[in-house]
Amino acid sequence: MKKPEAIIFDMDGTLFKTETLLVPAYHRLFDRLRAEGLYTDETPPVERILGSLGMLLEEIWKRVMPDASEEARRRADELLLEEEERGLKSGGSELYPNVVETLQALRAHGVKLFVASNGPAPYVEGVARAHGIADYFEELYSAGGRKTASKVDLVRILLDEHQIKSAWMVGDRSSDIEAGAENGLGIIGCAYAGFGANEELEGSHVLIQHFEELAQLYETSEEKQAG
Question: Which GO molecular function, any one, fits this protein according to its record (predicted)?
């Protein structure tokens, strides 16, 4: 792959070790749903939501609680955000190893860095702020903030608004691979999160097992084409 002008990152399972925040928040939200009388069953297996990361929230709740009412799903949306915000304030959530150092190295090379996530804007911005990485990015794009129906559209908007001509898409789910492919980007699949099946990363140009491999990948990639 050619050296890119910009690198676009997914958030969950790419930069952020999502389960460190999501699992406790997930259990708390179902306790609250039951207390409010909106849900009477046992908490669905947490693997359902971990396996749904990368989807839009509406689709996630259909998969996690297929028999629940629309009211319960909408409330679950609200409660998850509340509980995740609470979790970020109390600490304990984690980025993947060497994320900060790698972002610093890429910025030192003059690469423009962005986030493109299917999550809600307060969540994406909250994670970036809580872990001290917000300032490394030119802008944080979220499906919730831009009201996009797919990550393909979200990335297209990002590229147009910042007039980016060459970029890499870095992520761990099929939505990231699709967004890179449909927008003609270099695609780097993150194989370390383990939320999705291996076939989700089919179509990646490169697979990485550790986040810090990105810096070396950039340094050893071919120079940009003239013009």
Answer: phosphoglycolate phosphatase activity
From the list 73, 75, 69, 146, the residue with the least C-alpha distance to 115 is: 146
Taking a C-beta distance cutoff of 8 angstroms, is the pair 168, 186 a contact? yes
Bridge pairing between strands 206-208 and 6-9: unpaired
The alpha carbon of residue 92 and the mean position of all alpha carbons in its chain are separated, in whole angstroms, by: 19
Asked if 115 and 76 touch (Cβ cutoff 8 Å), the reply is: no
* Ramachandran quadrant class, 106 (left: phi over 0; alpha: psi -120 to 50; beta: rest): alpha
How many angstroms separate the CA atoms of 186 and 56, rounded?
Answer: 23
> Is domain 6-18+94-220 in CATH 3.60.20.40, yes or no?
no
Distance between first and last Cα of the chain: 16
Ranges of residues in the chain with a pLDDT under 70 are 195-197, 224-227
**E-strand stretches of the chain:** 6-9, 16-17, 94-95, 112-117, 139-142, 167-171, 186-190, 206-208
Measured CA to CA, the distance from residue 144 to residue 129 in angstroms comes to 17
Q: What is the C-alpha R_g of the chain?
A: 18
Q: What is the pLDDT of residue 226?
A: 43
Tens-place pLDDT, residues 44-94 = 999 999 988 878 888 999 999 999 999 999 999 999 999 999 999 999 999
Angle at 73 between CA 70 and CA 53, to 5 degrees: 135
Predicted TM-score (pTM) of the model is 0.92
Q: Which has the closest alpha carbon to 85: 129, 30, 34, 144?
A: 129
